[in-house]
Each structure stands twice: as structure tokens, then as C-alpha cells.
Amino acid sequence: MAARVVVVLSGGMDSSTCMGIAHAAGQEIFPLTFIYGQKHAVELEAARKVAAHYGVSGRHKIVDLTGLLSGSALTDADKDIPVGRSLAEIGAGIPITYVPARNIVFLSLALAWAEPLGAEAIYLGVNVLDYSGYPDCRPDFIRAFQEVINKGTAAGVEGRGIRIETPLINLSKAEIVRKGVELGVPYHLTYSCYNGTVPSCGTCDACQLRLKGFHEAGLVDPIPYAPAS
Ligand SMILES: [Zn+2]
To answer: What is the number of structural domains in the chain?
Structure first.
């Protein structure tokens, strides 16, 4: 019998690859998407399309946290989204696109949905290799939150623990793309640009890392980009 799993789905490349991995494993997917005032709200439409692609729109929960999360260039009007940074700059320090407590909030709410559903796992598309700057994407954080689940839920205390699945955590963007293409992940429906423009800007950190992944995988990203200026 298929296990129930919650997949935190932003509509970007990584979370959509998690959808593909959970689908390939034959799991019963419950996608969970958050609106948090992100400037790139167009990714919500991508999340809807990806959920529809996998035939799980009826179970897709979209939670509006607008006004709760802030303090990031992704959410605050007075903070500019960095563009044109080198990959070395992207990898150094905690970027201004860090959203305070985002994955702590997302995992907490995913857990609140997962436990009564009887779900066995929560899929989260975090990835450290190309994105070491976000503290809430690191293995240490995931291990710590797993402890929170084990100690702070009935399921955990009774030994029916809910696992946090992070299948992409140690993969490069190129490896993620290769795996996703192999699994038939609909990357043409996904969206990653922090600026929220269509076509995507091609110069923000998210666009650059995504393009690098496709390039290194020897593939062409199927979504449109603005011409380089
Ligand atoms: Zn962009």
C-alpha cells in the first residue's frame, strides 16, 4: 500500500524534483505550498501546475502566511534582490534572501498536517552543495528538527515516527536536474526566479544556480529567460 507523504512544494526546481521522487516511489502525495508574501508569487501558479501534473490537485493545500514571515529580500519591499553575483559570492555567508525561520515554520506546519493524516514522511527539497548559505537547509538543522518530531509528537513518542526526507540534500544542481529528467519531472512547469518576472531574470541567485544546473547536466532549461543585457 502506498504510504502517505507530505511534500513541501514551492513550485521551484528542487521541490518539484521531490514530487517526482515521491511519485516514483509510489507514494500518496499531499502537496503543501506556502504563500508568505514572496515577491516571486508566480511560483504559486507553478506549484499548482506541478500538483496538477501529478494528479494531486485535490489534495494540494495552500497556506497563506502573508505578513508573518519577513526580514528578507524575498519579502520586504525595501530590500533589493541581489542580481549578477558570482557563484563564489552566492556561496559565501548568509544571503539577504534568507527568510528568518522559514523552514522551521514550514516543517512545523507540514508536521501538523502530516501527523493526523498518518503520513510517514515529509519531503523537503533542501540542498546544501549549491546553497550553503541558508542555515535552515543544512543537515544539522534537519537532524535537529527530526529530534523535535521524535520527541514532540504522539507519532514520534509511540514509535511511528514521521521522517523528514531530504533526497536532494547532498546533490549538486546538475545531479538534481539529471535525476529529475530521468523521472520525468515537468521542469517546463516550474519556476525559480526570485524577482517574480516572466520571463525569468536569469541573473538572481536562484536563476543562476538553476541555469548552472541545467548547463552542467548538458541540458537546456525549458523555461523562458530574459535576454542577457
Ligand atoms: Zn531570477
So the answer is: 1
